[in-house]
Amino acid sequence: MITNIKISNCFLRPFEKGDQNIVLEMRNQDHVRENMINQDFITKKTHVKWFEIVLNSKDKAYYIFEYKNKTAGVVGFFNIHPGELADWSFYLTEGDWPKGLGTQMCYMGLSIFFEKLNTFGIETNILPNNKKSISLHEKLGFIYQNKNENLVCMKIEYSKWQNKFSQ
Ligand SMILES: CC(C)(COP(=O)(O)OP(=O)(O)OC[C@H]1O[C@@H](n2cnc3c(N)ncnc32)[C@H](O)[C@@H]1OP(=O)(O)O)[C@@H](O)C(=O)NCCC(=O)NCCS
């Protein structure tokens, strides 16, 4: 068990057409935007195009995370190609969420990623001042690849995930 959060209160489901507006709303919240590599405010036009691509792409898999039947966040994978390292993105919407909810969402996302999407691993870049995210990646078994003043690069492979979390 990675957190004390009750699993029965948590649900991860693939994006649906009707999620378009809420995803844009979440992605443009200041605390999300400021922690993303692309910090631009996303326009409706750009988002609609991107959302359509996500719904129809095999190399992307995005999920809505629900906590106690409320939309709480997004976890998504992209650049998914057999035998290669993919990348991911995640965020919680503003709210009075219990401590550990982000970790729980990401753990559930990675479980699907490794068990259903049949992929090799993830390599991702994090902004160095995003200490919460770095700590979350460490907890999930990611290891440091590179670190400079602009980016922290971390990676996890299936074998590492299996060793750490498979019963
Ligand atoms: C990243 C995010 C999902 C984390 O969600 P969360 O529910 O707040 O995170 P958790 O409660 O699971 O905590 C993650 C870890 O960060 C630690 N943490 C919290 N605040 C911290 C701080 N200021 N400095 C260092 N670590 C901190 C927590 O203690 C926890 O580690 P621990 O369990 O070892 O104590 C959420 O903050 C978010 O949506 N951020 C904006 C988007 C974002 O940054 N996405 C990731 C881009 S790489």
What's the arrangement of secondary structure elements?
Elements: E1 10-14, H1 20-27, H2 30-33, H3 44-56, E2 61-67, E3 70-78, E4 85-92, H4 101-115, E5 121-126, H5 131-139, E6 143-147, E7 152-157, H6 158-165
Parallel strand pairs: 4-5
Antiparallel strand pairs: 1-2, 2-3, 3-4, 5-7, 6-7
The protein binds coenzyme A.
Number of strands: 7
Backbone shape: globular
CATH topology-level fold name:
Aminopeptidase
- The averaged pLDDT comes out at 96
Subunit organisation of the chains: single chain
Radius of gyration computed on alpha carbons: 15 Å
> Which secondary-structure class do the elements indicate?
alpha+beta
What's the CATH H-level homologous superfamily?
Answer: Gcn5-related N-acetyltransferase (GNAT)
Gap from first CA to last CA = 11 Å
Q: Give the C-level CATH assignment.
A: Alpha Beta
Give the count of helical stretches: 6
| Low-pLDDT runs | none
The percentage helix is: 25-40%
- The total number of structural domains is 1
In short:
The chain has helices spanning 20-27, 30-33, 44-56, 101-115, 131-139, 158-165; strands at residues 10-14, 61-67, 70-78, 85-92, 121-126, 143-147, 152-157. The protein is α+β, with helices and mostly antiparallel strands and 167 residues long.
Describe this structure in words.
The protein has 167 residues and is of the alpha+beta class. It has a single domain (7-165), classed as Aminopeptidase (3-Layer(aba) Sandwich). It has six helices and seven strands; from the N terminus they run βαααβββαβαββα. It has helices at 20-27, 30-33, 44-56, 101-115, 131-139, 158-165; strands at residues 10-14, 61-67, 70-78, 85-92, 121-126, 143-147, 152-157. The protein has a seven-stranded mixed beta sheet with strand order 1-2-3-4-5-7-6, with helices on both faces. Helix 4 links the parallel strand 4 (85-92) and strand 5. The longest helix is centred in the middle third of the chain and has 15 residues, at 101-115. The structure holds coenzyme A. Coenzyme A binds next to helix 2, strand 4, helix 4 and helix 5. Coenzyme A binds at residues 31-32, 35, 90-92, 97, 99-103, 126, 130-133, 135-136, 139.
